[in-house]
Amino acid sequence: MRPVHLLFLSVILALAGGLHWAASAYFKTQEIEKAAARLTLYRSTLETELRHFAHLPFLLSLDPVVARALEFGESEALDYRLARFSQSAGLDAIFLMDGTGLTIAASNARGARSFKGQNYAYRPYFQAALNGELGEFYGIGTTTGIPGYFYAMEVRVPQADTTGVVAIKIDLSRMQDDWQASGERILLANADGVVLLASDPAWRYKTLSPLSDAQSNRIIASRQFGSEDLQPLDWTPDPIEKTVRIGTEDLLYLRTADLPNSWSLHFFVSDNQVAARAWLVSGTFLTFVLLSFSGFQVSRLRRVKTALRTSVREEAALRLANERLAIEIEDRRTAEQTLKKTQDELERAGRLAALGQLASSVTHELGQPIAAMRNQLAASEMTVGPTPLNDKMQGLVARMENITRQLKFFSRKGRDSLEEFDLVDAVQGGLELLQPTIEARDAEVAFAPPKEDLRLVANKLRIEQMITNIVRNALDAVEEAAERRVVITTGGTTQDVWCDVADTGHGLGDKTLDDLREPFATTRESGQGMGLGLTISAGIIADHNGTITAVDRPEGGAVFHIRLPRHGMETT
């Protein structure tokens, strides 16, 4: 890109960024003004609700029926009278307490959670009223468990020198329900910073800041919030920027503390519309710039179009020639790969053929000497008795027999014995042969025979030999593992059957299946095997027109997958 183009792009992006910032500030101011108007309305509604009944305790303190009940203890008539007042005024409760805080009359005297008989001397509104003040208090009812706002006023009976307190309880939950129904976000907190009401129930009884010990002790003494935990609210306000983060959400934020009892009202507004409008303005600007630039480019392209036509035709001819050349190169590469694969297979077949002849000669020549050595060792043991030398020689002879046995298996083909059998029977036959090895490895072999038909026509003995070799390799792989487990799974389709052998061993590592199929490729100790098991098994599978694959398991170990056609060999 040319420097002039970079300069032009930088100027456009700078203008767009500045426009976006200015639009954001403008629309944010608009949203804050709307929020301020809504906050003023909510503050007025709350003040009206709180002050609507502030005079009622004073009027009740002058009621002769209230004074008579306080003086003579006659509460039944007052219970009925208070119930009527409470119902007509829409109050949660009205109740009268004597000088000790014991409730002697209540509007809910006939209810299941009556205040009557309860002592509320610990409540701050009772203590303030006895001091001649108008008691005001918000808290959760210790009797009903329902929060409310309490007003209380002292009642005096001069002729009897008796003092009591009459109190009312206002239910503010309807206001909270209105907040929730409006869909707006708002909360009311008291002077201690405890959330009293909130449009989001999760905010209720959270604290705007951690409480001091003195605040906590005072709240506990007055039982203001019952058993609520009063954990801090997950929020980070920024009054200067008028924003707040609540949880993971960023919002616009306004508050007012111009409320009774030093309460504060907090109002939150999503800034989604601010961002959307700002992006719309900057997007419109960029769209206009893009359309102008597009118009310029269209006129420029028209001048270039004629010159391009000739070069397009020449390029098309050159592309066609390149495509033909690419096809020829790909065909030659494929032929070379096929030739190399064929050469590798021929070399492998030649090595296996020579190895088969060598194995047949070695097993034939070594069979009688090894047998004679075993007989001589047996005779020596019978005459002389067991000796450390005899035991060592017996182990060496056993190793030699194990090696010649593997060579004998490798030299056999066994094409002349075909029969129809179930793959499950072959697996179980192989596991029976390997039972001593399984116990010696202290391994777990899991095999759940399926209910489906897995019959195939093949040389059963050689299939058992192949499965035995594969499972033995898996047992060898888990010998040093923390978890020694081998899982065998079988299945089939209409055309073939398959068997998976998975282990928890060391896996294939950096070796491939072709590496492991090479004769004498083994990771076992000298004398414990010649590395012919997988080579023999691969030959058996190939003779039956099957396939074998191996991959590492994600959780560790390897899995060998053998697939055999149901009719993989023609019966002779």
Structure description:
51% of the residues lie in helices and 19% in strands. It contains 13 helices and 18 strands. The strands form four sheets. The chain has a six-stranded antiparallel beta sheet with strand order 7-6-11-10-9-8. Strands 2-1-5-4-3 form a five-stranded antiparallel beta sheet. Helix 10 packs parallel to helix 11 (460-477) and helix 11 (460-477) packs antiparallel against helix 13 (533-543). The model is unreliable at 525-530 (pLDDT under 50).
Reported for the largest beta sheet, the result is: 6 strands, antiparallel
What order do the strands of the largest sheet run in, or round the barrel if closed?
7-6-11-10-9-8
- Percent strand equals 15-25%
Q: Ranges with pLDDT <50 over ≥5 residues?
A: 525-530
**Structural class by secondary-structure content:** alpha+beta
Distance between the termini: 77 Å
Helix tally?
13
**Gyration radius, in Å:** 47 Å
* Helical amount: 40-55%
Summarize the structure.
With 572 residues, the chain is an alpha+beta fold. It is 51% helix and 19% strand.
Give keywords.
51% helix, 13 helices, 572 residues, single chain, 19% strand, alpha+beta, 5-stranded antiparallel beta sheet
